[in-house]
Amino acid sequence: MSSDFETYEQDFGTITAEVTNKIGKIPKLSGEEKTQLVLNVDKQLEEVRELLEQMDLEVREIPIQSRAMYNSRLKSYKQEMEKLEKDFKRSRIAYSDEVRNELLGDDAISSESQLIKLREERAHLLDNTERLERSSRRLEAGYQIAVETEQVGQEILANLHTDREKIQRARERLRETDANLGKSSRILTGMLRR
What pTM was computed for the model? Predict the structure, then answer.
């Protein structure tokens, strides 16, 4: 189990290093080259998300006494993933001078108010994105709790079913014993009358 986790860790390290390198290049590019790199990074981030899901599944299979260590490692990887996603979003928003001039026109210097407005909108979008991510994480945590609660409920139901079967067997033995005692009583009564 832990060897699979460690394999996923190695893959995680390799892919995140590549993604970090590519994220640094995105703001310096423009046009089709930038679009292709963004698509490539997006695809690699999806691979990283899948690796994290696989690691999460592996951690659940690890014995409880070792699980805490793997859980903390997984948590740090998830935090690293969140940072990568934020950096990626910021790098896509960060425009090169060429793209900024296309958006604002050639007289970009004279349109300072437009630039300020663009920055405010970008900051607002980043805030909203972070709020959405926090809400998504809370929903995911709630879902995890629901899944764990369901598992505990299933275990309790299984235990109750086992206990019910034991009680039914004990009740049946009690009935048999009662019937045997009744027969013994009748035999003894018959013997005493003779």
Answer: 0.48
